[in-house]
């Protein structure tokens, strides 16, 4: 609920029209929303009020009353400016989330894949479907990239309004823990929401795993309407806490789950299994690999079923799914087999390596690094997982950002038999050229990304493209 207190006589009613949290965009007709920093190191929006006024903003929403504001500008006081921004942004955009079958997906891993799977299912049913998340917004074959998993509220509602204007009927949106903690999605109305999983990530932002979980669960405990359907893993926490007081569908691998996978058969083309939703069943032949992708398919099936899509269309969508770039993506069918994956958390790396081990006839070779300016505590965990599940490990750079690469490597604590090559291209090249035909190579951490950030510079770098070029060099006449 929007709760604003007028601070002068000009603010005699609630704000109307476009809002922005960026003072540079706060021109005539736009209301500037100033928010305190999300973390101790974040910038305080109140420091930019003067700039917004200079740019000609139409009004101000503040969390502080100690600022000297000209008398000709309406000013409102908000207990939480970011909540106000989300609600007002949705209002200014014409409430697009209410006009779409909007489905939210949160969790540590799998969000992008679940949204793509859901869009594939919705398309198979004949509805115009889109996604909004890490890879961009729009239809699966023409995404508009914006650089965030979940954009700021003003941009988020604008994207949804544009998608509705283009005739989209259903949209699957990735809801990150950052977005939930900073209230970017507080103005949206969800038809259904799914929780994929929880493991360690983003502790540099949240501080600890408990705060991280609390941010994730806001989607269910505070934002999902009472008639919105919760799609949750078959666990006691999920079923008895997050799903309380609303429609609930559970997914898992036992007959107690509403959505169940059984008779699982992995193969070198993907994975086959029997899908059950309530009392109906269908056979699935999926191009995806791994148990964790069955989790993702069950999540997507739950969201589809919650929005009125029958199991026949769900099966068709899963069988002919569009796979997001950089999610256990095989580069070519030449040997050695090379896969690129976004796995950048301990749990994701472990599951991806376990999945490839099932189909690996030779050595399992891993090329990976850890990102700079991010959770340092997971770095040695990643190295230990690499040691436990790969036969040969190359440690290299992965977006060092503003950290000293040597310090990142030291934090990772490489074992003596691991190869440390800071140049990521050189590490990938050596791994591919020295591999045996029966080996499998996993290049992990960057997935879909097409740049490498070093300091403030973004240099072109695409793991898939580089691996493809090296494979062509190894096989000049395929």
Describe this entry's structure for a reader:
- The chain is of the alpha/beta class.
- It has 3 domains: 4-81, Udp-n-acetylmuramoylalanyl-d-glutamate--2,6- Diaminopimelate Ligase, Chain: A, domain 1 (3-Layer(aba) Sandwich); 93-319, Mur-like, catalytic domain (UDP-N-acetylmuramoyl-L-alanine:D-glutamate ligase, 3-Layer(aba) Sandwich); 329-474, Alpha-Beta Complex (Protein-Tyrosine Phosphatase, Chain A), CATH 3.90.190.20.
- It is built from 16 helices and 23 strands.
- It has helices spanning 49-54, 81-92, 96-99, 111-125, 153-165, 177-181, 203-206, 209-223, 236-242, 291-306, 311-319, 346-357, 379-389, 405-412, 424-433, 463-474, and strands spanning 4-6, 19-20, 31-33, 59-62, 75-78, 101-106, 129-133, 136-138, 170-174, 192-195, 229-233, 248-252, 259-267, 270-277, 280-286, 329-330, 337-341, 364-368, 392-395, 419-420, 440-444, 451-454, 457-460.
- The strands form 4 sheets. Strands 8-7-9-6-10-11-12-13-14-15 form a 10-stranded mixed beta sheet, sandwiched between helices. A 6-stranded mixed beta sheet has the order 16-17-21-18-19-20, with helices on both faces.
- Strand 3 (31-33), helix 1 and strand 4 (59-62) form a beta-alpha-beta unit.
- Helix 4 (111-125) crosses helix 11.
- The longest helix has 16 residues, at 291-306.
- The chain starts with a strand and ends with a helix.
